């Protein structure tokens, strides 16, 4: 994503604008997957849900906004899921 400015939150603003454009395109995507814990995306989540879309959030458990998680259809903590996947991989390697 090209964000030609160094202003605070410029990446957030660009991402939100891109997601809003996608939401209003025909046909639009049915599921939005966000990898963030930033509560600034709460309104974007609600916009997608208002159009009948599903929103899934992946975030770190130590800094995820409860406001964001409370409006998501599903959310997962990346740091915990990665640990689980590494454990499975380790067990599979040991079994080989």
> What is the percent of helical residues?
40-55%
Provide the structure class: alpha/beta
Question: What separation lies between the terminal Cα atoms?
Answer: 41 Å
How many DSSP helices?
4
Beta strand %: 15-25%
Strand order, biggest sheet?
1-2-3
CATH fold title: Rossmann fold
Supply the number of structural domains.
1
What would you call the quaternary organization? single chain
Which residues sit in consecutive blocks of at least 5 with pLDDT less than 50? none
Give the ordered list of helices and strands.
Answer: HEHEHEH
Please state the average pLDDT score. 86
- Note the overall shape: elongated
Gyration radius (Cα, Å) is: 16 Å
CATH class: Alpha Beta
CATH architecture: 3-Layer(aba) Sandwich
How many strand units?
3
The CATH superfamily is 5'-nuclease
Properties at a glance:
96 residues; alpha/beta; Rossmann fold; 4 helices; 3 strands; 49% helix; 16% strand
Explain what this protein looks like in three dimensions.
- The chain has helices at 10-23, 42-50, 66-71, 78-95; strands at residues 31-35, 54-59, 74-77.
- By secondary structure, the chain is of the alpha/beta class.
- It has a single domain (10-95), classed as Rossmann fold (3-Layer(aba) Sandwich).
- The chain has a three-stranded parallel beta sheet with strand order 1-2-3.
- It is elongated.
- The mean pLDDT is 86.
